[in-house]
User: Fold these one by one.
Assistant:
Number 1:
Amino acid sequence: MKEMFKINQFNLMASEMIALNRSLPDVRLEGCKNKLYPDNLPRTSVVIVFHNEAWSTLLRTVRSVIDRSPHTLLEEIVLVDDASERDFLKRPLEQYVKRLEVPVRVVRMEQRSGLIRARLKGASISTGQVITFLDAHCECTTGWLEPLLARIKLDKKTVVCPIIDVISDDTFEYMAGSDMTYGGFNWKLNFRWYPVPQREMDRRKGDRTLPVRTPTMAGGLFSIDRDYFQEIGTYDAGMDIWGGENLEISFRIWQCGGTLEIVTCSHVGHVFRKATPYTFPGGTGQIINKNNRRLAEVWMDEFKNFFYIISPGVTKVDYGDITSRASLRQKLQCKPFSWYLENVYPDSQIPRHYYSLGEIRNVETNQCLDNMARKENEKVGIFNCHGMGGVLCKHKQNNQSVSSEFATYQERCKQTCQHFSTMEMTEPIA
Ligand code: UDP
Ligand code: MN
């Protein structure tokens, strides 16, 4: 089991023991189970990109789409192979999907391109009015599709995400996700889940079965009208491998006149991993920082400085040419980032008005106010100025003798990182 875990960074042995068409609990709110939807909903193509995915998780994703979607609403499933290096994902996969009850097409990227360009390829060859993106290790539950399509039918500028349930990377147990969390991000531009604020509960008059307006999407699972996807500029094809594209499309949707929602009556499971199983050609940090810089430079206006000040190393990373994305923003007459913070994400950690950005340093002792990796609302401490911004977990001592203060500091860093282990993929524990 431990050996097989390394292949995909989840318990592959458990996955292989579970049927491809296993039953799942109906985790919907009671009020969702008897909702009625119009019967002329738009049809969707389901686009699933993968790189070296396991057979069982990939085909369980496909099976769950086929088994739990009305076939009248399912145009096709498109599998985009991002240059995988597994023989079973070549001809055996093509042979297998031929026998399925819904048209399943397999297309291949000529070279490793990353999930962004792979999704673009899948979108471009698909034909449904709606495009639904899923990761390659998902399971759709009863009634997942209709509420998503119904929102798009009502307004094609609405981009919708299901509640993402948790499939344990250890046991493959299916656990309901919460309808009381939504998407945000922190100063390092990491996607994070946060509690749905009171204002959003009030707007829905306390009805938890109504869609939640969310500042950001997690990224892997969403549906969008094909024409609207084109209209707002699909994805930034200058982004590589993984990361940043979810915040980029989230900011773009909101700033350019769309709406982003979590449809709480739609539940899809996803295997959340603690580490990534595949390579990032060119270096993980390099790639994620490049993608994040593209996103910050195009969409965040002066607020990009929060990101740069908290991760000073980032400004050394080359982000390539962004002129076409900048002119897209111009063409669509998108609103400033301050509008987004004010109206869509007022509970953001980024202050909308501030006096100065920087550090508070005692020039005599060279010590700085430091959050000591403590949580929000806890007291700050004093620590040697490290000039590394908020990248606490990476802090390394040059010197082998560790002071007691430093030891507790390191311990706290570790705890903080471990606490966020499922989300904090970009900052390895030092
Ligand atoms: N993926 C891909 N090419 C890549 C990296 C990822 O096609 O270079 C696929 C991957 O197989 C998965 C999806 O993109 O289906 C999202 O990646 P992952 O699941 O690793 O991201 P996470 O869910 O951990 O954020
Ligand atoms: Mn995933």
Number 2:
Amino acid sequence: MDTVRTRIAPSPTGFPHIGTIYQVLVDFAFSRQNHGQFVMRLEDTDRARFVEGAEGIIYDAFAWFGLAPDESPKVGGPYAPYRQSERLPLYRKYVDSLIGKGYAYHCFCTRGRLDEMRKTQEKNHQPPMYDQTCLKLTADEVRARLKDGIPYVIRMKVPEHETIAFDDLIAGHIEFDSDVIDHQVILKSDGYPTYHLAVVVDDHLMEISHVFRGKEWISSTPKHVLLYRYFGWDMPVHGHLPLILNEDGKGKLSKRHGHASVEYYRKGGYLPEAVLNYLSNIVWHHPEGKEIYPLAEFIRLFDIRSIGSQAPRFDLKKLDWVNGQYIRALDDKELHERLVAFDASIGTLEHSLVSRTIPLVKERMSTLKEYRSLAGFFFERPKGFERPFAADVLSIGKKALEMTDWDHEAMERAVRSASEKAGIKARDLFMEIRVAVTGKTVGPPLLESLEILGKEETLKRLEIGL
Ligand code: GLU
């Protein structure tokens, strides 16, 4: 096989979607597995949807996951430029060659005329397709219009009554009837190519061997098949990845669901390696049934052909579980560093105190963000309480703790014997103490926590609770 080259071709339209990372994961793993290269190309030809700063956000997101491309607008590479807006003369050249070969033509139809056409088609329940009016223009008529400076676009021709077929690595053999394929605009009146032309020209010129992209692009592919044919180029292998669905399986994971954006995971205290592991789990099954494994193992064992065409569901609870496993696998010092990197304000807290709390909360954390809510009471008194106290029960606890040594085993004995004497359940007594000291009904192991908090502070909090 020739060199494997995969690519991700994001448009700079906002924060990257988690579905983009899932494609990057496949691109990255497949290129690494085959000792090839992974390329990023910026598809910035749709100026109406261009968002300033989005390019930088894309690099950040890829870097956060450790999936940096080998070639990109940022790091350059032998096929530069990698930003489509910097390749305009090139597209023009290829469009002219298509016109020359009779595979593309000028279209001078105005917006108004096209709108009218659409409306009539809608009324007659016809598919919205260009009616090919300008295809009938003679060469002289075209020349005259160009001379008069009438604005135009370039459209590709589509043969009639033909089956356009291709073999998709993931979706299998696909056929389209050419009669339902529009004479697509390939060059806009502003001189920018549309996606269809640019993607074909660039995938070819950049020697991309495998195009992996979301299934939503599958209906565009027959147009690309035709363009490859018109240019006389071999088509790269295409593999359309199933879309990630919402948890309930109804519809694509969309921006409406807060967790579609990569930002959600960064801000939410997820570890990038855990998110990647989870994404690997939803595209593929580990041969030994493992759910936790490093990226290197995925790269080694992943089989692109095992990706089914069935759409996976994104289960946030399952991701939380995976994230929790990764948090627990960190040693305490590493977790401390990751916490500070995640939330700089944790770095301003007393270092040794944070270190002592980590072993207690680690078992209960599924995200880094939860550290604050689980361990906040070590650093400040609760501002509110999840429920009111039973003052008489609490005072029994306070008395017991006042008299004991400050280690959790002695404290446990004291609280248990006090509850027995008073004829109340030890569990209830512990709960009163927990709420008074931490403000909450659940949290890290209580007596170990009190040991860290210290006798004086604990008793003060119990005092306030009374
Ligand atoms: N620019 C397209 C996008 O934003 C790329 C589609 C493709 O990979 O061909 O997803």
Number 3:
Amino acid sequence: MNDLGRIEDLPADYVEEMRKVNLVPLWPSLRGVLPPLKPKPQTRATMWAYADIKPLLLKAGELTPIEKAERRVLVLANPGHGLDKMQASPAMYLGMQLLLPGEWAPSHRHTPNAVRMIVEGEGAYTTVDGEKCPMSRGDLILTPTGLWHEHGHDGTDAVVWLDVLDLPLVYYMEASYHINGERQPIKPDRGDRAYAGGGMVPTPIFERSHKAYPMLRYPWDEARSALLRLGQDRQDLDCIQITYVNPETGNDAENILGFYALMLRPGQTLRLPARSPSCVFHVIEGGADVKIDEQSFALTEADTCCSPGYTPVTLHNRHADKPTFVFMADESPLHRKLGVYEVRN
Ligand code: 1HN
């Protein structure tokens, strides 16, 4: 394993002398931080079944009032990182959040970027930067760094969504903090309406929007239709996938994490190559067997799993008669910006 010597090979008093002045030798640790050929991830392939989460989340609704919790969330923790680390992967945090009818999760903003993927329930909304975004199953709603956001619920049933944040990375950078705010006044302009047509952007008096985040809500019916159209149009394509992008720039919707939706054709098996970033898979509709290295998870609707980086993943649609739709989040934007992105076949 370690052919560069162990710390125990050195005289103890020499090691102690170094430590007193905050010095340590590199060579005993060199293979650990630079393993041969590929990283040794802490991230473990892990699945979180919605059937396990939901009753525990509803119990949290009974035990802890929203006024006390601010955000009523159960964190989907990766045991490879330790459950108290609140990490699904090196850069991704996942949580399932519950909002009950009439509840209000107060306005705040923070440095980590977040998105919400709505899992079930109607009638809730989140207000982001003054835009009131209705929440329906499968919708993706952004709350990018620094934007005010709060959640409300005018409906009659519990609403649950999956939060994905780049919190572990921003926290690691010692750049994570929040500010509480007031209830936001609602602005009339809604990015999801302004950018509803693909390839068409609003240009009042020939001016494009200069907003960093012009579109905050990506309705599921639009994403689903886009996937079905793409699948119809491109019978030659194995991988029917869309990326959620900033419609003004075409870049990833957020700076650190990437968000995608994938359609598996009836009965399809799709092999994704090993790529450097970790990836999260969440079934919006249908059911999929997800094979990550030697582990297999059977995902049904609202189930979630994650894969470590540098690991091939095979997805299989368990339904022979209908497509399966999967939401994915990964660390690609981060890896690409840092120049460490890799695909290995
Ligand atoms: C947060 O602000 C929300 O606004 C959800 O709903 C989960 C996890 C960690 C830090 C901030 C929210 C969060 C969070």
Number 4:
Amino acid sequence: MTVKKAVIPAAGLGTRFLPVTKSMPKEMLPIIDVPVIHYVVKEALASGIDDIIIITGRSKRAIEDYFDDAPELEMHLAKNPKNKHLLAMVQEISSLCDIHYIRQKEPLGLGDAVLRAEKHICDEPFAVLLGDDIIKNDTPCTRQLIDTYNRYRCSVLAVEEVSDAMVSSYGIIKGKPLEDALYLLEDIVEKPTIEDAPSRMGAIGRYVFTPEIFDCLHHTNRGVGGEIQLTDAIRLLNARQNIYAYEFSGRRYDTGDRMGYLEAIIDMALEQDDLRGELLEYMRGIVGRLE
Ligand code: UTP
């Protein structure tokens, strides 16, 4: 059975982006004019997923509205033929795929958010894509994980090397190198100190899991930060079955972090023909003033 379902946890409080996240989900922050979660949903679809569950919470209505039909807006745009391309764009968003929403009543942690999807996933392997990580690559990161899953029929975590300063913000793995970019997971530690970190390889926001992860989540107590940590459930799963870590190809933007968010906006603006020239000129001007 291959991977057709994905869970996108988007119920976190986004405290690093307060005050805007007081009333707006951080997953809806715009990368110029497209919200972050749009990129995440598109990655899932481009990876062959056709059933998406978004885990939402309080103040997250904007996510549901974004992927829903907008009859008043569509009627307004339809009146003027000049708006034809805008109308098509708005209609495309609401017809991307079937999206289901499950509420996480309290933000008890990423592990708890994933567990909310158990009844919808049932007994199938599934992907998890964090709602605030954008990864750009011709072969989507989730597709790379699914291909690895299809070879080994085991859970797979996407990992990348993180800087010393960032080690204490990630689940850090100890892995046995198997072949280019592939490791057999030996251990994973949530947010270790630099001294306790078993490597510099951090698990980022993409996973494929066998359904046994749900039983492990049921047996996971609150961990670091008082939250139900997905990392702790992965440790339990690793005691029962092999897990692989895959050093994915692609450029990742952690848009839940203010610098990561800025990098995403600048890089994506530079990719747009109508913005690139003016933006470069503006940036040269800034550099000139600073020199
Ligand atoms: P983060 O830890 O980056 O999100 O979780 P956060 O807690 O909202 O952020 P800060 O640290 O307070 O700024 C990664 C992903 O997991 C989701 C978040 O919405 C984000 O997409 N998440 C996190 C949940 O769905 N539920 C939770 O209880 C925690």
